[in-house]
UniProtKB/TrEMBL annotation:
Residues 71-97 are annotated as: Disordered. Keywords: Membrane, Transmembrane, Transmembrane helix. Residues 71-81 have a biased composition (Basic and acidic residues). The chain crosses the membrane at residues 25-44. This is Uncharacterized protein. It comes from the Eukaryota.
Amino acid sequence: MSRSWVRTLGNVRSFVGNALGGLRGGSNLASWAVAGTLAYFLWVKPQRELKRQQEERAALAAANDPYRYVEKTKPIPDPQERGVIYGNKGQSKKPDS
């Protein structure tokens, strides 16, 4: 009974080793390092550089747009009580009693 988990562990190690290409030790580590380095320089780095360039272009386009809207001050609230009704300036609200 106690040997069954040892055998299961050995089978799992064997399966993982075979799935990783069957290499063991230093050659396995070296092959994974080479593969990871190639993947970084062929896929990850170019993708990051492309994204950075696109963000820079978008920032330059936004900065050079003379018609873009920039809020410089807070809007002044309408002093009228009921919005844009021009004849209501001199009247005050009657209290409910």
